[in-house]
């Protein structure tokens, strides 16, 4: 056996071992808040719920958005690329791989739940406090059935898809409303799932699209779930590495620029290797 071939086998074995190091949650819910830097949230008495979540889960102290303004950050987290978009322009008509499409192609499920969106598959740019720029699934026509209002959130949480996005409207994502309003909305609408996740092999991710321009795009990102080791973690992460982690957990490769990011490791207390 050649030395080169042996090296390839070693690299493949290492990659397989790394894949086995990540748990496989039954459900993942990702909630995205808006335009606040790390220091505006962590330690802020106006955000008691988020700070309590940070104590219960993994708090990433070196987490970053990709760019400014909002929309390309949502696209980065959803599709592994800003798609060349550098604005909040609407509407967009996009093509190519994204988190939903690759999950669906594997026979898995995805739904984006948007607060105040009037109906499933809505294509408008805004409706009251709902903003399409924060709902990237709306930009892929083939994902109309996965583009749901928050009112479609199931009472029975076991009916959630494998991966969900939850998008508060601009009154509650800290864009137009206050930090205290956004924090209270999270407690009211997400705490039930956060508690349920601890008993049902599931994961909650709370993050922000970008900072307010004051901290080099440093944002708060928190993982909470039965498989998470609570604590503070200093490795640098961003939207691409969060996306890569979700994909990797489901046995899927990185897409677009997330291919160059590593899945997040070192924060998991148990491993479920089912695929």
Would you mind describing this structure in some detail?
This protein has 275 residues and is an alpha/beta fold. It has a single domain (3-260), classed as Alkaline Phosphatase, subunit A. The protein has helices spanning 3-20, 38-41, 48-56, 70-79, 99-105, 179-199, 239-249; strands at 27-33, 58-64, 110-114, 126-127, 130-131, 147-149, 163-167, 202-208, 218-225, 231-233, 237-238. Strands 1, 2, 3, 6, 7, 8, 9, 10 and 11 form a nine-stranded mixed beta sheet that branches. Residues 1-19 have low confidence and may be disordered.
SSE layout and pairing:
Layout: H1 3-20, E1 27-33, H2 38-41, H3 48-56, E2 58-64, H4 70-79, H5 99-105, E3 110-114, E4 126-127, E5 130-131, E6 147-149, E7 163-167, H6 179-199, E8 202-208, E9 218-225, E10 231-233, E11 237-238, H7 239-249
Parallel strand pairs: 1-7, 1-8, 2-10, 2-11, 3-6, 3-7
Antiparallel strand pairs: 2-9, 4-5, 8-9
Helix pairs in contact: 4-7
């Amino acid at each position: 056996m050649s030395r080169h071939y042996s090296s390839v086998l070693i690299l493949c074995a290492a990659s397989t071992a790394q894949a086995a190091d990540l748990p496989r949650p039954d459900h993942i819910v990702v909630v995205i808040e808006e335009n606040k830097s790390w220091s505006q949230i962590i330690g802020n008495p106006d955000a008691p719920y988020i700070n309590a979540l940070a104590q219960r889960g993994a708090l990433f102290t070196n987490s970053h958005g990709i760019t400014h303004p909002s929309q390309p950050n949502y696209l980065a987290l959803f599709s592994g690329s800003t798609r060349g978009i550098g604005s909040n322009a609407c509407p967009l008509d996009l093509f190519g791989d994204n988190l939903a499409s690759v999950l669906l192609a594997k026979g898995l499920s995805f739904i984006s739940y948007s607060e105040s969106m009037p109906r499933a598959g809505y294509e408008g740019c805004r409706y009251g406090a709902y903003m399409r720029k924060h709902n990237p699934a709306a930009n892929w026509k083939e994902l109309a059935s996965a583009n749901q209002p928050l009112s479609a959130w199931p009472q029975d949480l076991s009916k959630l898809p494998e991966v969900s996005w939850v998008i508060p409207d601009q009154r509650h994502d800290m864009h137009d409303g206050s930090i205290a309003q956004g924090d209270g909305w999270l407690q009211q609408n997400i705490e039930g799932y956060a508690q349920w996740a601890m008993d049902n092999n599931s994961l909650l991710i709370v993050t922000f699209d970008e900072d307010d321009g004051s901290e080099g795009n440093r944002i708060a990102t928190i993982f909470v779930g039965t498989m998470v080791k609570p604590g503070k973690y200093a490795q640098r992460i961003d939207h691409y590495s969060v996306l890569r982690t979700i994909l990797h957990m489901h046995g899927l490769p990185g897409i677009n620029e997330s291919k160059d990011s590593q899945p997040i490791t070192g924060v998991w207390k148990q491993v479920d290797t089912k695929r």
